[in-house]
TrEMBL record:
One annotated GO molecular function: transcription cis-regulatory region binding
Pfam family of the protein (one): TetR_N
SUPFAM superfamilies, alphabetized: Homeodomain-like (SSF46689), Tetracyclin repressor-like, C-terminal domain (SSF48498)
Protein name as catalogued: TetR/AcrR family transcriptional regulator
Residue ranges annotated for the HTH tetR-type domain, each copy included: 6-66
Keywords noted in UniProt: DNA-binding, Transcription, Transcription regulation
Source domain of life: Bacteria
DNA-binding region: 29-48
Length: 198
C-alpha cells in the first residue's frame, strides 16, 4: 500500500474512533492506525502522538460530539420537552457507541490517565449540556430563584440520566422495561422540586 504522508490529525482521530467503536480500545494500536490510513507509524505519531494521546484525542472529540448531539435536539430551551430530549439524546449516544462511552466515562485504559486537562473537557461538556439547559429551564419556571441554583439541578439531571444509562448498558432491566420511560419519570420528579438543597 502506498504510504499516505498527508494523513491529518483529524483522520488519525477518526480512524482510531472507528476502530474503538467496532473492536474496543485494545484494538487501537499505532500499527493498526498506520495500516488503516495507508501510512507509517512515524506519520501517525507525528500527527497525534502515541496511543495515550490518540485515546485522549478520541475522548475529547467524543465529548464535543456528545455536546453537539444533545444540543441539536429541536425542542425550545426552557421547556420540559427540551430537558427530556437532552436525557434521551444522552442515552441514545451511549447506546449507539457503548465502547466510546466507556472511554469517556469508564476507568482509564490503554495508558490513558484522566488528568486535569481531560477533566476540563468533561466539565465544559457538563456546562454546555446540562448547566445551560437547567439554567434556561429555571429562567422560565423559577426566575426569582436563589443564585447558584442551576448547577445543582444540572448535576441531579445528569447523574440520574447517567446512572440509568449505565445500568441499561450493563443489561439491567428498568422498572418500566424501557429506560426512556424511566428517564422521563425521573426528570419529572426532579422538576417537581428543582430547588431542593438536601
Amino acid at each position: 500500500m502506498a504510504e499516505h504522508q498527508g494523513a491529518s490529525r483529524e483522520s488519525v482521530v477518526d480512524a482510531a474512533r472507528a476502530i474503538l467503536v467496532a473492536e474496543g480500545p485494545d484494538a487501537v494500536t499505532m500499527r493498526r492506525l498506520a495500516a488503516d490510513l495507508g501510512t507509517s507509524y512515524q506519520v501517525v505519531y507525528s500527527r497525534v502522538g502515541g496511543k495515550p494521546e490518540v485515546l485522549r484525542a478520541v475522548h475529547d472529540a467524543a465529548f464535543d460530539d456528545l455536546t453537539a448531539q444533545v444540543l441539536a435536539r429541536g425542542e425550545a430551551p426552557g421547556t420540559d420537552e427540551h430537558l427530556h430530549a437532552l436525557t434521551r439524546g444522552y442515552l441514545d449516544f451511549a447506546v449507539a457507541s457503548p465502547r466510546l462511552f466507556d472511554v469517556m466515562f469508564g476507568p482509564a485504559t490503554g495508558g490513558l490517565t484522566r488528568d486535569a486537562a481531560m477533566r476540563d473537557v468533561e466539565r465544559e461538556s457538563f456546562r454546555g449540556c446540562w448547566v445551560a439547559a437547567a439554567r434556561a429551564w429555571l429562567d422560565v419556571h423559577h426566575p426569582q430563584r436563589p443564585r447558584g441554583s442551576a448547577a445543582p439541578l444540572a448535576w441531579r439531571l445528569w447523574s440520574a440520566t447517567h446512572g440509568i444509562t449505565v445500568l441499561h448498558l450493563a443489561g439491567h432491566e428498568s422498572p418500566a422495561g424501557d429506560p426512556r420511560t424511566d428517564l422521563a419519570t425521573v426528570v419529572g420528579l426532579l422538576l417537581a422540586d428543582p430547588l431542593a438543597r438536601r
